[in-house]
Write a structure and sequence with these properties.
By secondary structure, this protein is an alpha/beta fold. It has helices spanning 63-77, 143-152, 172-181, 202-220; strands at residues 2-3, 16-22, 26-28, 35-43, 48-50, 55-58, 86-88, 98-104, 125-131. The chain binds calcium ion (2 copies).
């Protein structure tokens, strides 16, 4: 079953769909935070999918699908203004700390870490409204997220590895986004939260940042 714009009201329920295809304008999904599950997600150039507060699982976990969704989020993000076409959430205007995270479930603990009534496997993709910096998609920004970013810092990456501005690289802008939200939780919690890491002191965060700088310099010199 393929759902197009004309059937917008029909899809606003928790049922699996073969595909969502946004052909024009903006398709706004429910604001109630329910889950969605689709085989593939198509948004043509210039059209917009507004996820609201909804988690969206995409069964097609191919690299091509991941990259396509990633670039749709990047165009919607539009340098942080979140006013472009593509995949976005109108909730970000209400809470600028938020962003759309995109991960493969295998990157965040696997399908078993997600409580959902839909059939999920580890290769499925998840899009959800989370705080910028929340690499682990558990709704909070803490030491675990920093560790993900630090391990890819200065190189290529995706959301789960610390690329929060969708430019394909893990760098200073991504660290800044994480640092700005460090210690917050509770915007949404797409993934069952593991034991919460203790919130470090600000000076410790500064020490980490200095460590990152050293790491980057060391890599450049080799
Ligand atoms: Ca997190
Ligand atoms: Ca980046």
């Amino acid at each position: 079953m393929i759902i197009r714009q004309a059937l917008i009201t029909a899809i606003d329920g928790p049922r699996p769909l073969a595909a969502i295809e946004v052909d024009a304008g903006t398709l706004q999904l429910g604001q109630n935070g329910a889950d969605g599950w689709v085989g593939t997600l198509q948004v043509v150039d210039g059209a917009t999918l507004d996820l609201g507060a909804r988690r969206m699982f995409v069964d097609d976990g191919s690299v091509a699908e991941f990259d396509r969704l990633s670039s749709l989020i990047a165009t919607a993000r539009h340098g942080g203004a979140w006013d472009g076409a593509g995949i976005t959430s109108s909730r970000i205007a209400l809470d600028p700390r938020a962003a759309i995270g995109l991960v493969r479930l295998s990157e965040v603990g696997g399908a078993n870490s997600v409580s959902s009534s839909f059939p999920l496997d580890d290769s499925a993709l998840l899009l959800a409204l989370v705080p910028a910096g929340d690499a682990t998609m558990d709704g909070g920004v803490d030491l675990n997220d920093f560790t993900s970013l630090a391990s890819s810092f200065g190189g290529p990456g995706n959301w789960a590895r610390g690329d929060f501005d969708y430019d394909g690289l893990v760098g200073l802008n991504d660290f800044t986004a994480l640092a700005a939200n460090f210690g917050i939780s509770g915007i949404t919690s797409p993934i069952a939260k593991a034991n919460a890491a203790a919130v470090p002191e600000p000076q410790l965060l500064l020490a980490w940042f200095c460590g990152l700088g050293l790491l980057l310099r060391t890599r450049r010199h080799h």
